[in-house]
Amino acid sequence: MHLYNADPTPVGNELIVGIKIGEFTGDASASRGCAIMTTGGDGEFILIRSTDIRVFRATASNTIVQLTTSPATVSITAADGDDFLFAFNIVTGAMRVLQNGVQRCTATDTTQLGKSFRVGVLSRALLGRV
Question: pTM to 2 decimals?
Answer without folding.
Answer: 0.86
